[in-house]
Amino acid sequence: MADKEDPKNGKMGKGKSKVVCGYPLSIFFIVVNEFCERFSYYGMRAVLVLYFKYFLRWDDDLATSIYHTFVALCYLTPILGAIVADSWLGKFKTIIYLSIVYAVGQVAMAVSAIHDITDSDRDGTPDSMTFHIVLSMVGLFLIALGTGGIKPCVAAFGGDQFGEHQDRQRRTFFSVFYLCINGGSLLSTIITPVLRAQECGIYSKQKCYSLAFGVPAALMVVALVVFIIGSGMYYKAEPQGNIMLDVCKCIGVSLAYTICINTFYITAYQQWLKKLLIAQIKMVLKVLFLYIPLPMFWTLFDQKGSRWTLQATTMDGNFGALVIQPDQMQTVNPILILTLVPIMDSLIYPLIKKCGLNFTPLKRMTVGMLLAAIAFVCAALVQIQIDVSTKQLLHSSPYILSGQGFIYFKLTIKGKANSDTEIVENQAITFVGFTDYFLVYFRFVNGMKTAVNVSTAAADFGLIEPFYYSNYSQIKNGKATFTLRSGSQSCEYSTNFGFGSSYTFFIHSTLVFGSNCQDSVTAVEDIKPNSVHMALQIPQYFFITAGEVMFSVTGLEFSYSQAPSNMKAVLQAGWLFTVAIGNFIVLIVAELAKIPKQWAEYVLFASLLVAVCVIFSIMAYFYTYIDPTEIEAQFKKKINEDDEDDKSKPGKAEVEMVKRDSIKCHDEYDKATQTKM
Ligand SMILES: CC(C)C[C@H](NC(=O)[C@@H](N)Cc1ccccc1)C(=O)O
């Protein structure tokens, strides 16, 4: 496809877009669209599990399964979007239509989270949960269809805006595109949890999930509007037909041959297919073959959201002025992306080039895999640190308490208190999965002959009978002041709760109300506070993100540049399919390999990726980079020459006629096969 750039002033790019600093202006609308769309997607995803758990009242297992199924679906639907774009609607129309589907899905999610809709008795809880569940599932399905469907099209459509000789600009575009993904996701993962924490409602005030879903819905509408505004400037490649469908057509025509077409036309059609189609199929298959080992990278990469977040729940998130939630650690990834992509593009890669090294895309991807493996080794080292500190805790843990002369007490400790814990009958604290990192557990044992009431400024924990103990209660970590009261007399006891800690407070029989009761209460650590700091996770985040920059940003561009013109979106979908497979591997390995030691599981994943990386580097060594546009042009030229040389073969016009006839023939073939059925 010829570039429409004006050779004199260079003001026009491909399509009708103006050129600014060597870049078509049209890509501005595409990157803004991507920013808003990723804000919408990641913003909604950030609060989804909590919506399942606290609004729809699902248990952890159901919430987690539906969440992962949704994410996997989002990376499977790109295939659908790509086929529609490449073979039928074209990328532009596919993006518009599927964005509408996407926005409708987001709105459905926002509406499904309005509790007042079905709260006829106005008690603050929805009366018909079925309505909310059905609407949210429909919403999620539409979102998966929309976000996945447009994903391969937007990236490929952006790439289409560049001319044949704008390789450098196109590479920069893919980097900027990636920056926008991460800028949008970073902002939304910070903002939507804040929106969710607000209280809203008409009849009763509840956590505002409708706002947390409503803002991403609005951003999706903005994404669509921005994309439409740029409409007049885009270069819109016509859908050229999808190779897969063409191959099927080819078989169909061969079968229909006996019914409706003469030998001359079939021979010409086969000539056309043999040369152009088979060359294109070869290009695609070569790249797809190379993709086989890639899911392993995503298997490690996507554990940031699961294993690494769980690891963070056993760590200390106190950063002085800032207290970080375990799931907030994930924002380190987009923050590092925003820093590392410009550094790599403007410093590291040019420096490597200056040293005379040819750092090809496949070499970059190999290094990216190795960096991800290093990240998992770091995660294993951090895990060993955590395990050592937990071991110390188990040895020093007060399983049997005496000493006060009046009570014997036994505790069974099974997990960290900063996790979503279950207090079972034998007073064990059992780990279930984290919900609120800021909450810690405590209870009081009353050694006095009178009943004692325990309260704080915010809550009353009730009356504890003489020589009895209270149930565990939750309180925010940090400093807490308890008021102990007996009749009209009271005193205050202050203490500090570290992250993940749990305490039993023994009220001495010698306590005198009205005086300082600080010395008359003994605090015993049931569970020690987390002692390994969350900052220790930063190296693993650094390596996985550096790996992502080398692997994912490069892979995105590689998938575009190595695809034949009629398979750009399909190869993008193939690339995203590796993400879906990677996610399935996480689910399978988590189920099958029940490795008791978490650090050993991290080492296993790192070793697997190194092994896969060796295989990939061998495959990459034998891969020859191609320029599909040049091959296609040369090939078409050759066909024309052959046709002119050999008068027995059909000319250009005849080939066109063959194509038309083959379509007619398809209809005949369809009719024939339908009547048979
Ligand atoms: C997995 C996708 C192919 C790539 C891309 N994702 C990212 O760029 C992530 N770094 C974004 C992110 C943001 C917040 C928390 C974790 C990850 C995408 O979404 O297109």
From TrEMBL:
Chief location: membrane
Keyword hit for Glycoprotein: yes
Protein name in the entry: Solute carrier family 15 member 1
Domain of life from the UniProt record: Eukaryota
CDD domains associated with the record: MFS_SLC15A1
Topology with respect to the bilayer: Multi-pass membrane protein
Function: Electrogenic proton-coupled amino-acid transporter that transports oligopeptides of 2 to 4 amino acids with a preference for dipeptides. Transports neutral and monovalently charged peptides with a proton to peptide stoichiometry of 1:1 or 2:1. Primarily responsible for the absorption of dietary di- and tripeptides from the small intestinal lumen. Mediates transepithelial transport of muramyl and N-formylated bacterial dipeptides contributing to recognition of pathogenic bacteria by the mucosal immune system.
One GO molecular-function entry: symporter activity
UniProt organism field: Lates calcarifer
Reaction catalysis annotation: glycyl-L-glutamate(out) + 2 H(+)(out) = glycyl-L-glutamate(in) + 2 H(+)(in); glycyl-sarcosine(out) + H(+)(out) = glycyl-sarcosine(in) + H(+)(in); glycyl-L-proline(out) + H(+)(out) = glycyl-L-proline(in) + H(+)(in); glycylglycyl-L-isoleucine(out) + H(+)(out) = glycylglycyl-L-isoleucine(in) + H(+)(in)
Record-stated family: Belongs to the major facilitator superfamily. Proton-dependent oligopeptide transporter (POT/PTR) (TC 2.A.17) family.
Pfam family, one: PTR2
One Gene Ontology CC term in the entry: apical plasma membrane
Organism classification: Eukaryota, Metazoa, Chordata, Craniata, Vertebrata
Gene3D superfamilies assigned: MFS general substrate transporter like domains
Alphabetized UniProt keyword annotations: Cell membrane, Glycoprotein, Membrane, Peptide transport, Protein transport, Symport, Transmembrane, Transmembrane helix, Transport
